[in-house]
Amino acid sequence: MKLNFRSLATLCAFVCFSLALIWALSPKLLLSTWGVDFSYPVGLVGRRSAALFAGIGVMFFWARNAEPSSARSALVAGFVVSCLALAALGVVELGNGHAGPGILSAVLIEVALILASLYVDGRERRSVATSMIISTNV
Length: 138
Description:
single chain, about 140 residues, mainly alpha, 5 helices, about 80% helix, globular
């Protein structure tokens, strides 16, 4: 798979839609993987998170064909901040004993998505800047 914004946005949409379905239909699945006990209040928060993941998935799916722009960069920056916060929280909760080592799988995926997002956004911005310089010098 060629790593460009279209493939990354499609992957992010797929991950977000998957998380939305899991949190909405079976929050116990992720919680048990992370070593966290299920309770009604935790399920409530999980189901509400499903709505946020669904919304993020829609944004990435609809933006997958977007050309480099400040709006697309804002989408990537927001996603990077969210993944960074989630990864940090996962490590902190593991360190505090509130989650088990299973949460590290989520942290690794979040870090991978951060790195891929920064790579693609940076590479495509440089490409656009180079094209603009070449076209103004011709």
